[in-house]
């Protein structure tokens, strides 16, 4: 009996030890399990230019070209539809469905000329009426399109031109950079019969480089080349597959196994992959993560406090630790480095602890930074840097994206005293209208400066380069001095590609670049 | 802790079976436990983590500051290496004992108090009260624990107090069932009958007569619940439903760093060892107590 019990005890302890081993591998197992993406194996390479496979997170809401905002959903739409104009990786405008564009002498109207013989994927011709209907739908009073914000206070009306295949955009005031707005999100052209709010996946009509063949929820989307595309000769790939993965780690493993052909470069990707074994696309500017202060609330109603925070940040360290070097140090204005006009004469801010001490005047500033999980690394680094300096006592609150961008008037991203929110690349004056203009819906800083708004309007109307330069200097100086928002860095994006991918992308795979696969092939 | 047969009227012949918690046997049990290496080592591990949770600030560890290069491998300066923000992983693992020993143990304590009390009441009164409670607990126990947990987090939030309450709710039914069963066994013994015949109040019988006799079972369940609670709170943090950045919580650290598993294993393995050591130590303590109590 004793022996039996003893054996039982030994067996029991062995179970415990086995449990020890099991729990010790807790993280490894969880990591591995969470990486088991639901993607199907990539298709075998077809004839011609082969098949290209991309990994994204599966969209969680209805895919509507006029309202999509998630990057994965934009890709799914963008492969099968096309806008009037796109931007290349240097920000130069590229004609797509439009062949040309011209402004009137007073700058109040822009006439867009469409290419001849454009067709939708269902065989219907694409003409001026479709363009007019698309923009009226995007900017209509009931529109739910995020793209509408770009045209608020800018676009008065859109109508078919006096000659076939022309469309006239009439503006509220002169806007010399108006064509850039036509590269914005949700501006791909839909048939005039399309109704906003429709589940586009059920009838994926478009005029893009590929035809959506099959959408399998939880797995993938498959496309084949669109033979009726206006530049079909330059589209070499015969098919594209978009696989869905749960997270970045799953995508990384899929890329390492060769299941997908590209992955977005990031600090984690760069630290894991030996980049010499792969190709990389040229980096291009994508967004900035801004630190917004509510300037109507203490202590941020004192500009000295805002400036102290701005001078306390080690921006070079932020570029390394947050962006893995994939960013450029910024100077608290919204002029992306690839924009044609760059402010001059404003010294670049870098960490200056003497200036911080002077600006704080011996007081301690205590505050909480609120942000979403997407920006928690920046929040942690800012907290880390500030708390290392006497005079700051900073806490952070990290919310899920759903909580941070919750609907309603009390949404945290527009109401918390200090927030971190990312903004995709736009024209500098658009930022003034969207985030700094008095009463603007997305003005998280509650900032108001009539002088800045006036200068921004003048900038939009200006056509001559010297005048634009002078105004840009004045605008950036105000933004830099008032520090309603800190822009620590402009992030760049690039993709790591398998070596089997041939050809160079004209632009990043995003909405300004128009998801352009011309010239790309895959020998896999 | 009172003797199990406090009244002289209780027949000595009935002093048998589980009614053994007298002054002579208690030191003997403790001596037996102290002779068991797995028990001693487990206790030392728990004591180490308690000391770590309470004392990391005193010794000047900096779990939140950048103290080295990004993702630096373990060396003399950083024995556990650094994470993606240059924070010392040793400091973070040590500081991570704080959240691990806050929610888990307090939640397990709450579960033990609530579950133990309800189990005692159900086993003592039986009848409708017993049936009602047990069927309700059956329903709760039938639910997948992680899904149930996520629903509770959605209902109560992720504050520390809410998480303690949630862990308490999760584990109380299991403890209640076991304590009820132990109570039913005790109810058949004469010391309970004697206490009733002497006109003792129900509360006194429950907590002065029955409770001391089922205490070993309760302690074992409490310890097992502690281990499970630590594990479950780490799982919640891993899922982003527990501690939030920049907390040094072990589950959160595992989740945040798993993307670096291929290049910086130390950012995941050391927090995992933290969870493992605490969970296994608590299980081994329960195991040893159970064996000695037989």
UniProtKB/TrEMBL annotation, chain B:
It is a multi-pass membrane protein. CDD domains: TM_PBP2. Pfam families: BPD_transp_1. The chain crosses the membrane at residues 39-59, 100-124, 136-156, 162-179, 214-239, 259-286. One of its GO terms (biological process) is transmembrane transport. Residues 97-286 form the ABC transmembrane type-1 domain. It comes from the Bacteria. PROSITE patterns: ABC_TM1. The keyword Transcription does not apply. One of its GO terms (cellular component) is plasma membrane. It is found in: Cell membrane. Keywords: Cell membrane, Membrane, Transmembrane, Transmembrane helix, Transport. Residues 1-26 are annotated as: Disordered. Belongs to the binding-protein-dependent transport system permease family. This is Peptide ABC transporter permease.
